[in-house]
User: Fold these one by one.
Assistant:
Number 1:
Amino acid sequence: MNEWETLRSECLQCYGCSLAQTRTNVVFGDGSETAEVLFVGEGPGQNEDEQGVPFVGNAGRLLDDMLEMIGLDRSAVYIANTVKCRPPRNRDPLNVEIAACRGWLDRQMALLRPKILVCLGRIAAKELIREDFRITVEHGQWFVRDGVQMTATFHPSALLRDPSKRPEAFEDMKSIQAKVRELCSRTALRSPHDPV
Ligand code: URA
């Protein structure tokens, strides 16, 4: 087994918090294990819990569209969550659950060594950028932590609930595209004229 396989198989057997009791599947992560760009969401919903893959429901379809708008495919990035098991009834993950799960994300980040980390929504931004992060004010801004460029945009579920935020999210995505162009020589960005 390589390091990713070892990590995945350990993670799939995790009983580190009570979410293990109600999950169907651990949602480890998806995408390229050599990606330069990491997206981190909040936690699995019902579809993700059933399929064991992050962002496969309505929010996932919107995330795919957001990526496509800037010429990225999910196979060119890596997608993970702050917690790997579904919180019951899609409630916010508790701090104690995020803390219990943090080691898995840290180990994924250590293997990936992303150049860019994009937090999808408030929960990921508070965990990964700053505890008092304010998504409505600070989305689209760039921060550097341990040499990694970090930013946050609105969670796709928030954009589904409130489409008026979409123009701002689009600006954030364009800023991410510019940062990928600047820093990520291995990440292929489709030009708008390429067939999708
Ligand atoms: N919302 C998230 O935050 N993560 C998923 O994987 C799906 C929906």
Note: The first helix runs from residue 3 to 12.
Number 2:
Amino acid sequence: MSGDEEAPPEIHHYENRGEVPWDIQNYWCQRYDLFSKYDEGVWLTDDAWFGVTPEPVATKIAGHIARAAPSERKVLVDAFAGAGGNSIAFARSGHWKRVYAIEKDPVVLRCAQHNAKVYGVADKITWFLGDCFEIIKSQLKDLAPYSVLFASPPWGGPGYRGASVFDLRTMEPYSLNTLYTEFSLFTSYVVLYLPRTSDLNQLAKLVKDDQPAPVMHYCMRGASKALCVFYGGFQLQLS
Ligand code: MGP
């Protein structure tokens, strides 16, 4: 698969630890957790490694959203597609009529498109290059009544681990309030993938009284990787 397409110079498929920059070696060691098909030619930029949702977590989230969303919501918008981990899992779930994936870095978008081909789901995803807030308002607005929005935003880098409670008000470049306000204009069904140490009081402030917003930790080998908050009255069934 990797031989079918020429990768631009910013994209790598590292095969040996010696080739991998030191600050991403930790992630490279977990490459099969991130992409079980890594050896089939998965592409990443060096910056994209930090934000990839591990494949078992992405699959679990995709299953939960599919089961919890109302039946008329058959479109999934992935606002920060990155290298494609979540979009691929949504497409593989087979639940959505269409997955719309937005990424503003053109090189990272190429990785996502390529990785979707590796996983055999490229034909199930429509890709957009650009700012998610703009694209949602301009190109996706007609889909709003049928859509669920998932966002795995940047958390300001791996430094998020330094805080025992992560302040979502100062998250860079988009705060929790910015994300929630912008996405809620588009759809009331919003799922956010956030640091496992996120300040739960800050998440709770956005909850509407008649619509509880479950928070789910997603774990691997007994440790939380991240949490999702489900805003908008999802009927979350645990399994
Ligand atoms: P981590 O804490 O950097 O790694 O990221 P890990 O493997 O828990 O560290 P260790 O202490 O166990 O070695 C954990 C998960 O958080 C990653 O797998 C990503 O899914 C997610 N993640 C990390 N960052 C920095 C981001 C980010 O900026 N945005 C998003 N959306 N996810 C991130």
Note: The pocket of 7-methyl-guanosine-5'-triphosphate is lined by residues 26, 50-54, 152-155, 157-158, 160-161, 193, 225-226 (CB under 6 Å).
